[in-house]
Structure formats: structure tokens, C-alpha cells
Amino acid sequence: MYLDRTPxxxxxxxAPLPTPAxxxxxxxxxxxxxxxxxxxxxxxxxxxxxxxxxxANRLSPVRVFDCDCLxxxxxxxxxxxxxxxxxxGGLDQARRGDVLLLCGSPDVPxxxxxxxxxxxxxxxxxxxxCGGLDRGAEVLAQAGLLKGRTATTHWRYQSAFAESxxxxxxxxxxxxxxGESFSCSSGTSAIDLALCFIRSxxxxxxxxxxxxxxxxxxxxxxxxxxSDISPHFAHVTHPKLRQIxxxxxxxxxxxxxxxxxxxxxxxxxxxxxxxxxxxxxxPPKRFYDDLxxxxxxxxxxQSEMPITEVAMATGFASPSHFSKKFRQxxxxxxxxxxxxxLD
Length: 343
Description:
Helix content: 40-55%
Structural class: alpha/beta
Number of strands: 8
Order of helices and strands: EHEEHEHEHEEEHHHHHHHHHH
Strand order of the largest sheet: 2-1-3-4
């Protein structure tokens, strides 16, 4: 699916990927993954992804995956915990046919970012397929490698990501695995992404065995079921309410009138009110306003957008009304919150 087959890595151009039933016959196909690590990367994301692939190798009759770590300069880089994993070299060690997962955030020294961007672009030109763990998709977008593709990042930074990179289709979900697009948001979602690769490249049976061994089967199913909605509301299981919340989340800049939601799903406004009160504890209008204000708060903290543009991007035509509503929810005006961030 993501592989650029070459003679040195594949026995035949048309050879099918091995399945749990036929791996013991003929040469094994080994897919190499390379994790490009930035300073301050999430050790949980990296270890979760690597351990899931390692477990697949242990459960398979033959080795199916290789996994190496790289860095921008070929030297170990500390994670957010201070622990540095060994690396096999710089990004020039990525080869055609590899799948590269960038792990880290854009908040790195400029020289590191320049070197990493140059290395990523070169790798992509040489047939390396690139995706992201944690906030890695943001770095890939800055390098111009996600134009027209779907990606996700940590939920706290999704609003700023969407505003900064309109050329990328943002999925407000824990992970993305479709076509040429693959990324995950943070933490254990790296396990979900690894399971998707295992299922795609080595079969559903092996993926299920790995999930069972990790005691992760139910969690993975939940992640798949709730991948269409913000992690904040993953606990909401009522299908009609989920549909309304998803539409609200997709219409922040130009808010929809409240009656449109009842018309959309074919129930009365009173029934919509009862659904919100029962499952999320607040009326729909309050919920929608809070959703917009939460998005505004993320933009204030995570972007350099002028406050007036933040107001417009979250559906508030009047800056003074926006400031008043913002203070009511967060106890400070947007200007005060941003000033506190910069102090």
C-alpha cells in the first residue's frame, strides 16, 4: 500500500504480501520502518509503535518488519523524558521503499528544523513514504510534504494546524490510515497506527493477535469507532448526538443555526435538548459556544493569529462580544491569556 517495490527489497514485482497462512513458504518480505526523532519527542509514541511491530515479529513465523531510529544529524536525541534512544544515522540512511514516521514537534531550534526539512524532502524525492507520530505531521506540513493529503496531530494543536496549513486535510481523530496518508495524534494512538500497518501488510489475523497480546483489543476497536470525532467526546456513543457534534465541530467559523441540527437528523429541537442534557450535561447552544471558545483558546495559545482573526475564525463577528464570552469561560480575555503565555 505504501511501498515502492525495488528488486533489492522484493523477490518479484508482482509477489503478494505474505499472509499469516503462507509466510512459511517462499522468501519473506520485510518492510522497513524508520522513525525520525526530533529533540523532545514522545518516548511513549515511539516505544508504542516499535514495540507493536516487534511483537508482530515475535508472533509471526518469519520476520515481517524492521524498525530503525534516525535523527537530523545522526546522533542520539533526548526524548521529552530525557532518555535518548540509539540511532543508526541521519535521514540519508532512509532508503527507497522505507516508511518514515517523524516523531516530534515544530518547537525545535531553527537549525534542527532546517536540517530535518532538507532531509525529509530528499527522502521523499527518493521514494520514502512519510507520515507522523504525535506532532510530526506539523513538521511534514511545514516541509511541504502533505499538500492535498489527510493528516492529524495532537488535539491541542489541531486548530492552529488547520489555520496554518489549509492545503492539508485535517482529520480531528486519533489516527489516520488511508491511501498515502498515515499519522497519529499522540500516546497510545501510535499503537493503533502500527496495528493498521500490520493489518495492511501482514493480515488481520496477525494484527488481532498482536492487539490481544498487548491487552489492547477493546481500546483499538474503540479508537476505530470514535475516529470521526474529537477525543474530548469519544465517550459519546449515541449515534444522533455524535452526528450533531461532528457537524458542530466542522462548522466553527460559520456557526449553523440551532434548528438546523434537529432538521438534519429528523428529530425535534426538544429531543436535541434532551440528548445534550443527558449525555454531555449542557444545552446544545452552550455546548456549541464552548466548542467555539475552546477552539479560540487553542488558537490564542498555539498560533500568532491576531485576536481579531481568531474571533472571526471561530464565528464571532464582534471582537468585543468575543472578548466578553472568552472572559466568561476562561476568566481572562484573549489578550490577557496571550500576554501571560509570552511573559
